[in-house]
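Slide 14.
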Amino acid sequence: MRNAYARWSRLADRVHAGTPASRDRSVDALRALAILGVVLGHWLVTALTTAEGGLSSTSPLAHMPWLAPVSWVFQTLSVFFLVGGHVAARGYASARERGVPYRIWVGQRLGRLFRPVAAVLALWGVASGGMLLGGVAPDTLHTLLGLVLSPLWFLLVFAALTAATPLVARLHPVWPLAVVAGVDVWRFGFGGPGWVGWVNVAAGWLVPFTLGAVWSRGAFARRGPAVVLLAAGAVATAALVLWGGYPASMVGVPGAAVSNLNPPTLAAVSFGLAQCGLALLVREPLARAMRRPRTWAKVALLNLSAMTVFLWHQTAMMAVTAVGLLVSADLPGLHTVPGSPEWIACRLLWLPLFAAALAVCWAAFHVYEQGASRRRDPVVRAPSRPRDRRGAPAMEVTRA
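Slide 15: predicted structure.
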């Protein structure tokens, strides 16, 4: 144990020493918090039950609506799009200054997103065939594939906005916000067709993405605009939920007439604005925390594998659920209907096992996210100079 701690301390010191002084570590911290929020949120509000014979998906939010505030904490996608817009706009501006062609810049960006996807699709393609041959019910397989593939919609939208950075980087967030509002008025106020709501898949996430681009141009150098963003977003969200008929949950709830997330509604976007305002306000405390080498090393290493963690966290949960079936088909908090506080307590006890399974997935598949990027634009590398106080090459953190 002591040797492991000593090795970790040396690695943390190397990562800390190799990070350029100009790097805004709070940006990486916000990205890490956003990814962790999504992962923990899915693990807490998604349940696979055996109540109907096979495995079916449900949510504690459908059985215990008073848990809606949990979604306010863990639905952090707006923060991820905020950071994504900030990094993309800043990175594209830097690439133009250095004379890097757009096709090379966008190819590197999209490659980092899509390389890990191939591994997920390949494994689940083989696993799906094996399960069908083994007699797994089609409904069960449909449930499992839905959980695996559902995160990909986010990745596709994020990739599209990243590719469109030269066009949207200077777009004011008020314009996509107006589109979201107009679509909701048409859908809910004038009985427009349901399909028109899917316009908000692009417009809704474009709001925090363009807000991030505005941030990259120095718009939030003072705290005042972030305070206004937080307050206005919170008041608007409260009004829309209390008097506008929008659901209190900021994630989809099985069986609900309206989902705030699929597609995004005006309530989800206003909530996201409040969340972005809060994120911008906590940058300074985060920056201070990131000066501690061990804290910063954890954040930097998580950012190295952000897509791997995101893409495999549902597989990790399902793996634990499947292994649990070998013991019993009625394990509390794992296979049972999430309809009581006892289920919540039991689910919390399963989270360390979910995390352990995710660590196994990370060990097996993180190379698909890092391999090619290390040769072209590494996150952490060991240069020949400078050397740390022990004479070892210092780790250098270079990727945004």
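Speaker note: DSSP finds 18 helices and four strands in the chain.
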